[in-house]
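BUG: 3D viewer hangs when loading the predicted structure for this chain

Environment: internal workstation, default settings.
Expected: structure renders.
Actual: progress bar stalls at 90%.

Input used:
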Amino acid sequence: MDSGITCFKEEARDIHKFYPELTYFESPEGIPYISGELKLNDDHGFYIDSYFIRIVPIQAYPYRFPYVFETGRRIPVNIDWHVFSDGHCCFKSIPEETILCKQGITLLWFIEQQVKPYFYNQKYREMNGYFLHERSHGKAGNLEFFRDVFKTNDLTKILQGLMFIKGRKEPDRVSKCFCGSGIKYRKCHRETFRSLSKFTDEELDMYTNWIIDLPGFKI
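Structure tokens produced before the viewer hung:
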């Protein structure tokens, strides 16, 4: 069995200790998965609602998110509801997920930090008609991520920032920031540098080339 599936299997067997309503199963082919009710409580511990879900591993786990399916048929299978056409949920843009998974994730962390917030946001949309914190889909969402971490809408500055990070030379904490703001590095883009340095050179090249190829972009 693939190492990612095996890793998921070992963690999934114990998930009921933390979430009693989630049960471990195996398919006839021996593929593990989790299925059951995910309960949502407010900040005071009072029950709000629940969603029925199934979590299945992928070979890249724990370096990519497992797939989560909402099985109660409450959420439309529609990208505008952050659900892909095959029914699995969309949690983060690709660069965000890549960074979060660089060191490997655990199933418990994934449920706590990604799955539950996702369904809280789905509940919010059901009640209010829109998501509280929504990022666009596909490449537009990727671009929003880079605009957020670099704190600019200027694609040229984002491109220059990615290229600087690929150089792997972190500025001294009291040096002027590489972004050209004139602010000391430690008060400007230090966390951006350290976070995006988790990308490989190949990944940084992929995103820089993607920005260069955006319609209308000029260096």
